[in-house]
What does this fold into?
Amino acid sequence: MSYGLAPATTKALVEAEADIARHGVVIIRTLETELAPSIMAAARDSLEGSPKKLAEMKDDELDELIRAIRKSAARSTRELSRLYTRLIAKLGNLDILDLEKDLEGIDQLFKWQRINNATEPVSAILEERGFSPIELAGPEDVADNLKVELEDKWRSAFSRFEEAVHRAAEELKEQEPSKPPRRKKTGEKRK
It folds into this structure.
């Protein structure tokens, strides 16, 4: 990854990458353990918010609804966790110039709005049955440490990483040999 970079740039890049990986892993682990239970709690609140509809449901229907909600919450959490794991794993393996192009997209994925999208499948199930959709208000609804990790630690680690990647990309661009201008072929005839 750091081929041809100055030692100081390589060091800054490696340290920033380690820092972002560390905070990314904390975010992933928190989501794996806390997101699905938070979605289930919000779904329970939605169900309790409509006591008349809840009372009209038979026990079998309610059990099936809870099973579908639990399965959907677990699937959403698992998919989000896998996405984040792939992104963190790729950060160290991508070409610096390609990574520089992808930084904004990576940053957009590690935001609360993206995490909150994991509630959409459960909301769809609830709305289908006539209950209110769910939405988690913020990362603190999942876990207190998730708010700190997403808004403070991830932000600063990502800023340092982004700066290190830009610096490394600039060094690599400066090292690229300039290509001579292409000559036009004039006056040649085909035989």
